[in-house]
Design a protein that fits this description.
Layout (H helix, E strand, L loop, with lengths): L1 E4 L2 E4 L6 H8 L6 E5 L2 E2 L15 E6 L5
Parallel strand pairs: 1-5
Antiparallel strand pairs: 1-2, 3-4, 3-5
């Protein structure tokens, strides 16, 4: 299935979860937020939230510094 992650097309297996999409971009264990089709997905729901064809996923990571 094709989804867009941070503006870039990605091919994921059918029924892939938000957690799988996040792992495509980062190995960070904290400081990560995700929205699917402009709706924030709580971290506790990443494994159980399945993506669908043409979903738009935004993965945001916190950056420290000034």
């Amino acid at each position: 299935m094709n989804v867009t992650i941070n503006g870039t097309p990605h091919e994921l297996p059918a029924g892939a979860s938000v957690a799988q999409a996040v792992r495509r971009l980062t190995d960070a264990g904290s400081g990560v937020a995700v929205a699917v089709n402009d709706e924030v997905v709580p971290r506790g729901a990443w494994d159980s939230t399945a993506l669908a064809e043409s979903d738009r996923v935004e993965v945001l990571t916190a950056v420290q510094g000034g």
